[in-house]
Amino acid sequence: MPDTQKRPRVVIIGAGFGGLAAAKALKHAPVDIEIIDKRNYHLFQPLLYQVATADLSPADIAWPIRGIFSGQENVHVTLSKVQSVDTERQVVTHESGDVFYDHLIVASGSSHSYFGKDHWAEHAPGLKRIVDATEIRRRVLMAFERAELADTSKEQERQLTFVIIGAGPTGVEMAGAIAELANISLRGDFRRISPDNARIILVEGGPRVLGAFPERLSGKAKASLEKLGVDVRTGALVEDVTGDHVVVAGEKIPAATVIWAAGVKVDHLETWLGVDTDRVGRVAVEPDLTVPGMPNVSVIGDAAKVPWKDGFDVPGIAPAAKQEGKYTGRRLAALVARKAAPSPFRYRHLGNLATIGRNSAIISMGWFKLSGFIAWCIWGAVHIYFLIGVKRPLFVAMSWVSNYLFRSKGARLITGMEGLRAIHLHVPKKG
Amino acid sequence: MPDTQKRPRVVIIGAGFGGLAAAKALKHAPVDIEIIDKRNYHLFQPLLYQVATADLSPADIAWPIRGIFSGQENVHVTLSKVQSVDTERQVVTHESGDVFYDHLIVASGSSHSYFGKDHWAEHAPGLKRIVDATEIRRRVLMAFERAELADTSKEQERQLTFVIIGAGPTGVEMAGAIAELANISLRGDFRRISPDNARIILVEGGPRVLGAFPERLSGKAKASLEKLGVDVRTGALVEDVTGDHVVVAGEKIPAATVIWAAGVKVDHLETWLGVDTDRVGRVAVEPDLTVPGMPNVSVIGDAAKVPWKDGFDVPGIAPAAKQEGKYTGRRLAALVARKAAPSPFRYRHLGNLATIGRNSAIISMGWFKLSGFIAWCIWGAVHIYFLIGVKRPLFVAMSWVSNYLFRSKGARLITGMEGLRAIHLHVPKKG
Question: Of B58, B70, B431, which has the smallest distance from its Cβ to A42's Cβ?
């Protein structure tokens, strides 16, 4: 049933960077906002790999959505999973009910794509959610534990081989961080194995690492990775992934731990909105980020295909989602106030950033290109800056500084699924 | 097969307070120590309830066993689950192999006891492990979410009713912390419900809360809890626990969240050691903490029944386990060095501590008895002191101070089993 309230209702699906920015931009607008997310927290994804490598805790980079909007009276948060959208009746159906919308903002993000090989997912988890990060952490740390207990040197080598598939920023950062975990953090912890004997292999189908960066910086990144002992293989296609090994460019590599950082896809939009989507599931939106033929439905963030320049689309990164969210929020505020609609969305590319281990980073911001330690300091400052106002940035900064200065051990807890399964299988005992 | 090494091998089962203290006391002894634990971390259990109530993160109160012994060359850590002990052949069998011991230290701790009603466990989780804490956190936070979405006021009330069974320190601390979560942390977060309408019921079968404390302090604790809005029911026996309600002293209380803080039991010792155990599974040890008739097997911590005074046993608390571990380590060091064995173990009771919410505590140390804010400051200082040298105490102190000063929201992430199950049921989507 259509809502009879006078204030227009804006429903936002997803509390990622795009959804949050849209809701915040509507703070002073006379609208009722309903944010629907199936998790109760917003996740600062750019630092998720540091949870996977045990440098940070989940709580350092995630915070409750309700807390963020505690002071914004026009926001109502619903913890539920969206099941369908009826664009005719203007209703979103979620697990706990229906909600009518005057305007819908779809900011539902993306998930991993295994390019049709979905059975690889089990053996090669990707890194999108907190559970992914803790699962990868568990696998990485358990591999060292299993190597320590291995009966044969062959099995020991297999346990100490880590393959990261995909050399975008996430893959590069994971490879660097695992190398440092093995070379530094775990030093002295084992008696039978030497963690720095670990083999870390970074596999990229394209011709170079960090394909979105200028070529010179790609070379620097590769050199930094190799200095950390990472075996970088570009132009190498993955042909198979099993629980025992991976096959890369015809070579069978026995490996216990495989991490997927290669592709993303967008789910549900075709069925939800009844529109065509591109190869990865994105909706090609109008210049004002609405869906063609549906002026009251906007799609933003990873879910939207927005043309940029030189035939490229706006990249699927946090700053882009934020800009699109802010634009959409402002546009709706203008519409509600019966002001002139803003001019079409224009993406402002702030640059590309990636870290390699604890004291090197790659920065490309327009004419400004930098790599090395100074770049790492800037990378840290930029991330701290983006955390301000949302989540305890001081804690994250302290973690970094203390990890850096004291080479501390970080949050190396093995929790997650195996531990949880153990509840039911084993009689509990105090640790 | 007996080991042929010259240095005696000490096997320690469990890396809790007792096991760690024993290993540390053997630091300079010419022995090989093998610590077997089924988890890779030591847990600072006294603060575990703060993880359950989202004030701290798991990584704040747990740290890798390997990291603790990284610099102690004679310690070997095995991440595995003990399956059996052969006291004739002096062999411990675990999931990944067998290990011979010259001396065995059993420091395996305790688990929850539901007094024979094991089917209550599912509805009333206890608080012993990190997964317990995150599960309780999930249930508590989800109850507010479900109340917000509830169709009827009856269901809303049921979701907002929290029953804590057992009023020892853990139960009292949980009740106080949930009251503060509802009254303070969640304030302003919901639109349909008012979290401070939550009913928190603390049920105790005995005549008073904190039964191990002097009577006057029990009264103070009760008053503090009632000031926070906790409904304290002493002399009230729990008769039934279901997923829908609990029955307390004949009264049926609809409640969605029930937390068990009542009883503990010790597992496995009878079968492992082939000895008689007491009602809760503990082994009555000799004055030197060895098992009667087995001079090379010590039992310490919660697993040991050690007489204290006035017919009481040494309590199952961290300082007691630490003292027993230290004593056992020193005793073995003396034996190995062929020095005189130390005099029998004597427990030094340091006192009892409990907090009630964020600015009140109850302290009883010999003649020194205190309650209120100053007691809370002492409680904090004592815990920070015990964390020093093991785990980032500065972070914990900062969390407390910032929670206290800014009434901050803490680590209110709903993760854990339901979220993990969701991996398999739902198509992943960015948060």
Answer: B431
